[in-house]
Design goal:
Largest sheet: 3 strands, antiparallel
Distance between the termini: 41 Å
Strand order of the largest sheet: 1-2-3
Number of domains: 2
Radius of gyration: 18 Å
Oligomer: single chain
Length: about 180
């Protein structure tokens, strides 16, 4: 709520979603430039906040790519994130008590989702029983030639994270 007040969005309408389905951010070379220090301040605050709000992680990461030369379209997307947070400030992660300790990983890939350098984006989450223990999204290092290849790269990253979590559990004496 402090961010909402800081950036004068107290009276703004709330949003139910972070980004529109058709929103595709790019460098926007013909767009109007905005104040870099304000944009970077917004992004910095959101990057800090995303540690406890995995729902904004992807959108904030996408907007953070344009800090060097932010345009009006990028600022509009960041303000939409803030308006979403205004309406969803009470969301939180829930960790129920459970004797169920299966380790599961899920992933998704957005083939050529980055319009700037034509790379795919991977997203993944890992659950230990019913509880979220790890999540992430990142631009893939290589350029995929097909949707299947982008999915394969995302699956490899997710499996790598699952194996790391499994090894961490073993190190703590948790065998399942």
């Amino acid at each position: 709520m402090e961010l909402i007040k800081k950036y004068k969005l107290d009276n703004a309408k709330t949003n139910n979603t972070l980004m529109g389905i058709a929103t595709r951010l790019d460098e926007d070379p013909t767009g109007t430039c905005v104040n870099q220090s304000i944009y970077r301040g917004m992004i910095g605050s959101l990057l800090y906040l995303k540690a406890s709000r995995p729902d904004i992680s992807f959108s904030v990461g996408l907007c953070a790519r344009f800090q060097a030369n932010p345009k009006e379209s990028h600022l509009k997307a960041v303000k939409r994130i803030l308006r979403y947070l205004k309406g969803a400030y009470d969301l939180s992660l829930f960790y129920p008590r459970s004797d169920f300790f299966d380790l599961n990983g899920f992933n998704v890939a957005d083939y050529v989702g980055d319009l700037v350098n034509r790379k795919s984006t991977s997203g993944m989450v890992q659950f230990l029983g019913p509880s979220l223990v790890s999540r992430g999204s990142k631009k893939q290092n290589t350029g995929a030639m097909s949707t299947a290849e982008a999915e394969y790269v995302a699956t490899a990253a997710c499996c790598s994270q699952v194996l790391w979590i499994k090894q961490q559990d073993r190190d703590f004496g948790i065998i399942f």
